[in-house]
Specification:
- The chain is α/β, with parallel strands linked by helices.
- The protein has one domain.
- 17% of the residues lie in helices and 43% in strands.
- Strands 1, 2, 3, 4, 5 and 6 form a 6-stranded mixed beta sheet that branches.
- A hairpin with a 7-residue loop joins strand 5 and strand 6.
- The two termini are 26 Å apart.
- The N terminus is likely disordered.
Amino acid sequence: MSAPGFGRLRLDLKLIENESSITFYDGISLTQYYDLAKRWSEMLSIIHREVSKYVNDDSLCFDGEDSNLFPILCNLTGNYYIDKVAYTKYLNPIGFQIMISTILTERLSTGEDDYLGLEVTLFTKSINANFEVWGVDSSVV
């Protein structure tokens, strides 16, 4: 593994258009959803930052020297899309959780296909409070 910033490929990401499914859980009202949806560009900015940090972290996304590891950075196209969004109202702690699932694509000889799923969990104490990142979970897709 090389030192950060030296000799390692860095992947610049691009969000591509796709139809996303939206789910509501645990008592979130339509008004609350609409108020949170007004902050969608802010959420997307956080998602982009977190996904970029993940794929460019040597300990989470590998350089391809060992083909038994997953994910391999050089397999990624740099494209990703939002697959699912789920909104949940919390009582303890009080606030709103937004889980945004992204799919990163891989290079194939015939084009590109789904490769890596990353789900970023955001939390805000109120409609207008700052978002906190509660976690990033990965999956093979």
